[in-house]
TrEMBL record:
It comes from Canis lupus familiaris. InterPro entries: CH1-like, Secretoglobin, Secretoglobin_Domain_sf, Secretoglobin_sf. The keyword Hydrolase does not apply. Gene3D superfamilies: 1.20.920.50. SMART domains: UTG. Pfam families: Uteroglobin. GO terms for molecular function: steroid binding. It comes from the Eukaryota. This is Uncharacterized protein. Keywords: Secreted, Signal. It is found in: Secreted. Belongs to the secretoglobin family.
Length: 86
């Protein structure tokens, strides 16, 4: 589910030049604290509903994905970013 979404999002960009802000956001989402992630979202969105949803989503992912799962997701994304076939 989550991994498929990340891969599909990455592959939808023809040359895999993901905007650095998006790449950093995904990394922060997977490895950062809930507070740091929500603070990052708040840089772009001020809606309390969006910020609360970001918090809930981050907490859900942190509760379901192990550190190993998160590192595997980052490894897959790094391979996609570096691929000559991308």
């Amino acid at each position: 589910g989550k991994m498929t979404f990340l891969m599909a999002a990455s592959l939808s960009v023809p040359d895999c030049r993901i905007c650095p802000a998006v790449r950093d956001d995904v990394s922060l989402f997977l490895t950062g604290s809930t507070e740091d992630y929500v603070d990052n979202v708040a840089r772009y969105q001020s809606s309390p509903v969006i910020l609360e949803n970001a918090k809930l989503l981050k907490e859900c992912v942190d509760g379901k994905m192990t550190d190993g799962d998160k590192q595997n997701a980052l490894s897959v994304l790094d391979k996609i970013y570096a691929s000559d076939l991308c």
